[in-house]
């Protein structure tokens, strides 16, 4: 029996110290031209089956099926099916996001080794790993890779970093797997404030930064113009700290990012649809067993709290992912 097929067993999406890591792209196929290759049809940065809809990437850091990695194929907030990815058994290697690093228009998977500071990319063709490329190392473990997005509008994925001790923030501007330069972002010294997502919240086609306070439950957006912060805005507070933000981006194709949540206690997953900074609705994603959604209705005989191993899983949705698991 596959890990996906185990009914009634709740797993955990990762992110905030074992919570959810999510982010997404607008589900629109683009055409990219290259001087060295034919035009490519681009998938959203977590769209592993290139259907124009972001998918969800899971990794197991626990002892049960350790190193298991897989993809939920999604239609908005509806689970369709799953696929296995290659296994990485070394728990020091942690997924921190997806992006396009070889200009083929397909999502690649970014990894960071929390022990050595090494960084690498799985170059993917859908769910097939083609090869592995090395990124520059960052040996200081206080620096955490917290997101992936195009911050200089060159159609190439860049890497967002936060120093969990000093509060410094920066972006590695990338040309594929080569770092071309580093841009400094404003510093935020309060260690309770954690970068939890990157997405376009004001429909200006530029990535913004989403923050959550792990003590108070406050949530804030930095509106960005490239690497310049133009303004900030507060979202509603979610004081129940069992709910952890995994990330943000456009799931419903309205041109603006939604906020994705995971409850570490109940195993529930939810989305904040936003109208500006107001929550207009909160659809729920399926609760999660080790990878496949669980029908928690009484007819299936599941208990009201089927969570069993909720610290094992890591969940991403599209390109931005927050490296809380690197603590």
From TrEMBL:
Could you confirm whether the keyword Metal-binding appears in this record?
A: no
- Superkingdom of this entry's organism? Bacteria
Record's Gene3D superfamilies?
Integrin alpha, N-terminal (2.130.10.130)
Give the keywords, sorted: Signal
Entry-linked InterPro entries: FG-GAP (IPR013517), Integrin_alpha_N (IPR028994)
Span of the secretion signal?
1-39
In terms of Pfam families, this protein maps to: FG-GAP_3
Keyword hit for Signal: yes
User: What's this protein's name?
Assistant: VCBS repeat-containing protein
Q: Which organism is it from?
A: Gloeobacter morelensis MG652769
């Amino acid at each position: 029996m596959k890990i996906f097929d185990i009914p009634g067993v709740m797993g955990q999406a990762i992110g905030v110290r074992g919570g959810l890591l999510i982010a997404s792209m607008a589900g629109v196929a683009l055409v990219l031209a290259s001087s060295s290759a034919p035009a490519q049809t681009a998938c959203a940065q977590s769209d592993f089956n290139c259907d124009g809809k972001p998918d969800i990437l899971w990794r197991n850091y626990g002892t049960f099926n350790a190193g298991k990695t897989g993809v939920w194929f999604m239609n908005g907030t509806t689970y369709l099916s799953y696929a296995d990815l290659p296994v990485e058994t070394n728990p020091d290697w942690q997924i921190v996001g997806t992006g396009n690093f070889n200009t083929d228009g397909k999502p690649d998977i970014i990894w960071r080794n929390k022990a050595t500071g090494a960084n690498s990319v799985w170059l993917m063709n859908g769910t097939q790993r083609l090869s592995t490329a090395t990124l520059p190392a960052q040996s200081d473990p206080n620096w955490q890779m917290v997101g992936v997005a195009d911050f200089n509008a060159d159609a190439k994925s860049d890497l967002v970093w936060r120093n969990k001790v000093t509060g410094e923030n920066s972006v590695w501007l990338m040309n594929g797997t080569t770092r071309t330069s580093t841009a400094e972002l404003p510093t935020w010294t309060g260690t309770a404030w954690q970068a939890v997502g990157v997405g376009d919240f004001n429909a200006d086609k530029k990535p913004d930064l989403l923050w959550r306070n792990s003590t108070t439950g406050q949530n804030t957006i930095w509106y960005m113009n490239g690497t310049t912060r133009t303004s900030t805005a507060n979202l509603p507070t979610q004081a129940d700290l069992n709910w952890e933000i995994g990330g943000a981006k456009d799931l419903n194709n309205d041109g603006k990012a939604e906020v994705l949540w995971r409850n570490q206690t109940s195993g529930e997953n939810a989305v904040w649809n936003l109208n500006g900074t107001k929550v207009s609705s909160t659809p729920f994603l399926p609760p999660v067993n080790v990878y496949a959604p669980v029908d928690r209705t009484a007819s299936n005989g599941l208990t009201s709290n089927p969570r069993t191993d909720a610290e094992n899983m890591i969940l991403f949705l599209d390109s931005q992912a927050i490296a809380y698991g690197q603590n």
